[in-house]
Design a protein that fits this description.
The complex is a heterodimer of chains A (about 210) and B (about 180). Chain A is built from 7 helices and 5 strands; from the N terminus they run H-E-E-E-H-H-H-H-H-E-H-E. Chain A is α/β, with parallel strands linked by helices. The longest helix of chain A has 17 residues, at about 15-30. With about 180 residues, chain B is of the alpha/beta class. Chain B has helices spanning about 30-45, 110-130, 150-160, 175-184, and strands spanning about 50-55, 75-85, 85-95, 100-105, 140-145, 165-170. In chain B, strands 4-3-2-5-6 form a 5-stranded mixed β-sheet, with helices on one face. Chain B is elongated and about 110 Å long. The termini of chain B are far apart. The relative contact order of chain B is 0.13. Classes of the chains: A alpha/beta (about 210), B alpha/beta (about 180). The interface between A and B is large, with 59 and 52 residues. Strand 5 (about 195-205) of chain A pairs antiparallel with strand 1 (about 50-55) of chain B.
Chain lengths: ~210, ~180
């Protein structure tokens, strides 16, 4: 009599295909990656159907939003390391603050900030993780002490000097920010004859 | 499940030296583990989509001297006031003698968009009847102090969706308009 033999199945599976897929995806993600940086002032942008993307270089972003206490703050960010360096130099000269070479290098690598120029050194000296926690007071935009205006002027000049290109300005506002505050920023821009700028928004479909 | 060939099974008992047959299978489990770990890491740390941006061009703030103010046909203008609480008040023409409204309306496709498309069509017909078929609707956007940034972006978005090319943001209110908004 023939015994029925149970075939012993091997528990090992062929991982080759899985490995292929995994590495394909991994390559894709590595190549498309742009590191997400924690923002110093997180804002919830409104969404629109606009399709144009923001440029990567020659761009200044003005972030308008509210902090945890509900106070409106203005932060400023410039894309492009060389422009940042040049801008810091210009601002230092204007406000009588001297920045060392080390400060400039550090400043060129950091992201948005929201402090008066006098306190900028402290922020530059901080570690990146501490900057987001530092509770920065925002850039002064009053008519008495309008530093945002100076930042814009100096950075635009830097962009023209370096790349011979007009700096693009984008406003990144919080959805709940009141209109007068946005209007104030637009007025500052228009005072410098910047009549065309971008509003940073999220994406949405036409059906809402 | 891990299967790695580890040498021969039985001890060689003298005699012939046989070349061992090496299995070509390598255990890939660990490698796959690692790959997926990295994938997860990259997926979570990347921001895939760049934010969108909306172009906004405003007219020059300082009016050019000697410029004759352009008179606009009131039949072509639609005034949209952005009120607090995500509400819109709109009217066509002049507030004293409005063609339509003033009326409350909501944002979105069933509210302001429907109205805009309808008005756009009637204005085009009106212009065509007058012999200037190219003149479309003019929308005046008036954000109140209590409206927020989202309202502004929303209404500008509606302009883009409905294809209204001529619009202006005017944050100035006539006394009549203020009264109208206060009543609500």
């Amino acid at each position: 009599m023939a015994k029925i033999k149970m075939k012993k199945k091997s528990t090992s599976t062929d991982m080759t295909a899985m490995c292929d897929v995994a590495f394909l995806l991994l390559t894709f993600f590595i190549l498309t990656a742009t590191a997400k940086v924690p923002e110093a002032l997180p804002v919830d942008m409104p969404s629109s159907v606009a399709q144009t993307k923001l440029p990567d270089t020659d761009l200044a972003i003005i972030t308008v939003g509210k902090d945890k206490d509900g106070k409106s703050k203005v932060f400023f960010d410039i894309k492009g390391r060389e422009i940042r360096k040049r801008t810091l130099e210009g601002m230092g000269a204007k406000f009588g603050v001297t920045f060392s070479e080390d400060d400039k290098t550090k400043f060129s690598l950091m992201d948005d900030f929201g402090v008066p120029v006098a306190n900028l050194k402290d922020i530059i000296a901080m570690k990146a993780s501490d900057r987001t926690k530092a509770n920065q007071p925002g850039i002064p935009i009053d008519s008495l002490d309008n530093q945002l205006k100076e930042w814009l002027l100096v950075s635009r000049r830097a962009a023209i000097d370096l790349d011979d290109k007009e700096l693009q300005i984008a406003i990144k506002g919080d959805a709940k920010e009141e209109y007068p505050q946005i209007k104030k920023i637009m007025d500052i821009l228009q005072d410098q004859k910047i009549n065309s700028f971008n509003l940073v928004t999220g994406m949405r479909g036409r059906d809402f | 499940m891990a299967e790695l060939n580890t040498g021969d099974g039985g001890g060689g008992k003298g005699g012939k030296v046989r070349s061992k047959k090496q299995s070509s299978k390598v255990d890939l489990t660990a490698m796959v583990d690692l790959a997926f770990l990295l994938i997860t890491f990259f997926m979570l740390t990347t921001s895939l989509s760049k934010p969108q941006s909306m172009d906004l061009s405003l007219p020059d703030k300082d009016p050019i001297k000697d410029e004759i103010p352009v008179k606009v046909d009131e039949n072509r203008t639609m005034t949209v006031m952005l009120d607090e609480g995500n509400k819109i008040v709109y009217y066509m023409g002049l507030l004293a003698t409005p063609i339509a409204g003033p009326k409350d309306i909501a944002y979105g496709k069933d509210g302001i968009r429907k109205e805009l498309l309808k008005r756009k069509k009637t204005v085009l017909e009106y212009s065509a009847a007058k012999g200037k078929p190219k003149q479309g609707i003019i929308v005046i956007i008036k954000p109140t102090k209590k409206s927020n940034y989202k309202n502004l972006v929303d209404i500008l978005d509606e302009m883009a969706i409905t294809g209204v090319d001529t619009y202006a943001i005017v944050p100035e209110f006539t006394p009549e308009e203020t009264k109208l908004l206060d009543k609500k």
